[in-house]
Specification:
Keywords: Membrane, Transmembrane, Transmembrane helix. The protein has about 450 residues and is mostly helical. It is built from 18 helices and no strands. The longest helix has about 35 residues, at about 395-425.
């Protein structure tokens, strides 16, 4: 008998809270033109509204997972909810663009405390037989967020509720956070794995700085035309990441507290899982290019644009719920998920290239790709977290979240740069078709890595 009788109710509130993290990534993109008009903001300031959220989230998510291990996942999750609540209010009632950017920074901090607690709690609260279903439920919220962010954002912006405009995309977070705070209080224990440990603050600082120096050049490279110093900062960030790794090894040998147990990064199957997670999140490029293509080239309004991504989002939502019913090995499911991503994006590229606008064929292709995304995500999360002991669940969850975030940022930047830099050369339609086909091509890397992962599994 499981010692956590209210674990399924707790999972509902955990996933609802975690839903806010990807939702705010998608929904804010829809509001950027309105924010620009309200504050007379520059393109650089608008980019910061989006980027500062992702930067703080990625830089602090391992720290958030570690805090959950040390002080209890319920406490840190609730702290994240409060941060998200008050920072969302700060965003909605910002007097100027600078205040909005700072509020978005605190939203990113709140998000970094939310996400790692969910996977770590699933690893602790649920038996091995229940974990696949729990992870699938958690994964499905990302599919729901991809639809809700685009569609809800479009409707809210058109609604003009109580004379609010762009503010509503932040105010929608308020009731969700309040419900989750109340629900978690009654359904979840403050489980934690380590007591009496201290936080590795030098490790925290090294990791944050290295991640910022890696992610910032990727985000702002196109703006500064990929100047030499962009690559210098990126190289310095990679070097600093290696210094962090060597520092953690030294601290672990001396039995001092560490932020990330070096054994996690020495576990080859776990690291291979992180790379697959990194590459399939290049799918974020679709959500950068597609809305822009529809609004700027085809002149669709926000609601029509939101409706266009529904096939992908519905399939992304269905995929995690379907995967528990497919009786195949983990590696076979990985091949299936990546194969659907490749075929879906490949056919979508062809339909755009020859037709130039959304069609039934395009919708079916996006549905196929979304289904692949929905299958691969819970399978990879379950595979990665299952390789790690419960005591390291928070750290492992943080590393998985980093792979998701850096993959999304890197993929969005590379695919977006390819799209925007080729518009003038080959035109809108061919540039978008090329960008979509590039997303498909990247997934081949995941198939090659999964083959390597399968070889490791056979040796054990």
């Amino acid at each position: 008998m499981n010692i956590y009788p209210r674990r399924w109710q707790a999972l509902g509130y955990l996933t609802a809270g975690a839903f806010l993290s990807p939702l705010d990534y998608f929904i804010v993109n829809m509001a950027l033109p309105y924010i620009q008009k309200a504050f007379n903001a520059s393109d650089h300031q608008l980019q910061m509204v989006v980027a500062i959220y992702g930067l703080t989230y990625a830089a602090l998510v391992v720290f958030g997972g570690r805090l959950g291990d040390l002080y209890g996942r319920k406490k840190i999750f609730v702290l994240g909810l409060y941060l998200f609540l008050f920072s969302s209010l700060g965003c909605a009632f910002s007097p100027d663009i600078r205040f909005l950017i700072v509020s978005r920074l605190f939203q990113g901090i709140g998000a970094s405390f939310l996400a790692p607690q969910v996977l770590a709690s699933i690893r602790v609260l649920f038996s091995s037989g229940e974990q696949p279903k729990a992870v699938s439920i958690f994964s499905s919220v990302f599919g729901l967020a991809s639809v809700a962010g685009q569609l809800l954002g479009g409707f809210l912006l058109q609604l003009h509720w109580m004379n609010f405009s762009w503010e509503t995309v932040f105010l929608v977070n308020v009731p969700v956070t309040l419900i989750c705070i109340t629900g978690i209080h009654f359904t979840m224990d403050n489980n934690r794995e380590e007591k009496g440990q201290k936080i590795d603050f030098p490790g925290v600082l090294l990791l944050i700085l290295s991640l910022l120096m890696i992610i910032c050049p990727i985000i702002f490279g196109r703006k500064y035309h990929w100047a030499w110093w962009i690559f210098a900062v990126l190289s310095a960030g990679i070097l600093l990441m290696l210094i962090f790794y060597r520092y953690e090894i030294k601290e672990a040998k001396n039995n001092r507290p560490v932020l990330v147990d070096p054994s996690l990064l020495q576990d080859r199957p776990f690291v291979l899982c992180l790379f697959i997670i990194f590459f399939y999140n290049f799918t974020s490029g679709l959500f950068i290019c597609y809305p822009y293509y529809l609004q700027e080239f085809l002149h669709w309004n926000p609601v029509e644009t939101g409706l266009a991504v529904i096939p992908y989002g519905i399939a992304f939502f269905i995929g995690p719920l379907l995967v528990t019913r497919i009786k195949r090995s983990t590696h076979t499911l990985i091949y299936i998920g990546l194969g659907l991503l490749i075929s879906g994006f490949s056919f979508a590229s062809l339909f755009i290239y020859f037709q130039g606008k959304p069609s039934v064929g395009m919708d079916v292709s996006l549905f196929t790709a979304g289904l692949g995304h929905g299958i691969i995500m819970p399978v990879m999360m379950r595979k990665a977290i299952g390789l790690i002991n419960k005591e390291k669940a928070g750290q492992a969850s943080g590393l998985i979240s980093i792979s998701i975030q850096i993959g999304s940022v890197t993929g969005g930047t590379i695919i977006g740069t390819l799209f925007f830099s080729t518009i003038e050369l080959i035109g809108f339609t061919k540039a978008f078709a090329l960008a979509v086909s590039a997303i498909a091509a990247v997934q081949i890397t995941g198939i090659l890595i999964n083959t390597k992962l399968l070889q490791y599994s056979k040796r054990q």
